[in-house]
Amino acid sequence: MDTRTFSVKPVGTVHADDESFSIEIAEPFRPALLGLDGFSHIIVLWWGDRVDTPECRNETVCKKPYTRGPETIGIFATRSPVRPNPIALSVVPVVGIDTASSTVRVAYIDADDGTPVLDIKPYLPATERVRDTNVPAWASHWPQWYEDNQGFDWAAEFTLEE
Questions:
Q1: Mean per-residue pLDDT, 82-86
Q2: Dist CA 156 CA 86 (whole Å)
Q3: What is the mean pLDDT of the segment spanning 93-115?
Q4: Which residues contact 106 (CB under 8 A, 6 or more apart)?
Q5: Of 50, 55, 56, 33, whose CA–CA distance to 121 is shortest?
Q6: pTM for the full model?
Q7: CA Rg, the chain, in Å?
Q8: Which end of the chain has the lower number of beta carbons within 10 A, N or C?
Q9: Where are the domains of the chain?
Q10: Beta bridge partners of 113
C-alpha cells in the first residue's frame, strides 16, 4: 500500500446562486486562463469540502443511492463527492471568460457556492468523448448526451437519505 500523502491548494472558488454560476480564479493562477477562451466546455475538478470528514472519507459502500440501482453499491460506482478523497469532476459549458476579474462564467456546475476548485482543464472531444460505452441496466435510461439532461428528472433518480 502506498502511504504517500499529497497536498493540493485551490486554484479558484465556485460562486453559485439562484441565477448564475462562475469560477473565480485565485490571483497566482490567473495567467493560467490564457488560451482558455474558444473552448465551449471545461472539466472542473473540485474538492467536496462539505463532505470532507473522517466518516465520509471511510465510506466505501453506500445503500441504494439510485432509485433503480442495486441495494448497495461501491462508492467507486457513484459520482458522489462522499469518497476516500472528496474529489469531484464536472464537465460544464463555458458562458464567458472575464479576464479582468479572472472569472469563468459557466452555465451550471453541481458544486455549492464557495466550493474550492482544484483544477480546470479544457474539454477535448478527441480525449474525453468515447463512442462505444456501457452502463449498468439500472442507469441505461439516463440521457446519453449532456445536452439531453435538460428536462430529465434527475431528482427522481436518487433516493432520499433517511
A1: 94
A2: 24
A3: 96
A4: 21, 22, 23, 42, 44, 92, 93, 94, 95
A5: 33
A6: 0.90
A7: 17
A8: N
A9: 1-48+86-124, 54-84
A10: none
